Amino acid sequence: GAALLTPSAPQAAWLAMPSLVALIGGAHQDYRHRRGQGGSLPPEYDAATSNLPFLAMLRGAQGPVSSAFSALADEVKVSNALM
Fold first, then answer.
1. Tens of pLDDT along the chain (83 residues)?
2. Does the pTM exceed 0.70?
3. How far apart are CA 31 and CA 46, in angstroms?
4. In contact, 25 and 11? CB cutoff 8 Å
């Protein structure tokens, strides 16, 4: 978030690095696991998940969108979210 708000390009790049490392590293790890190197990623699990938060839910990969988000709401503890 902060990387989008700063006017300085070097500072924006610095602040964006954790997100970029997580996205690129996660995609690389999934690629290796799909090939059976260092772990496994079953096709049914791969089809129902995403490296981007909530993308699989919005795509409908986990069932109807309203059902997926209501299931998420049932799992969330409000007291933890408020902390």
1. 788 888 899 999 999 999 999 999 999 999 999 999 999 999 999 999 999 889 999 999 999 999 999 999 999 988 888 87
2. no
3. 11
4. no
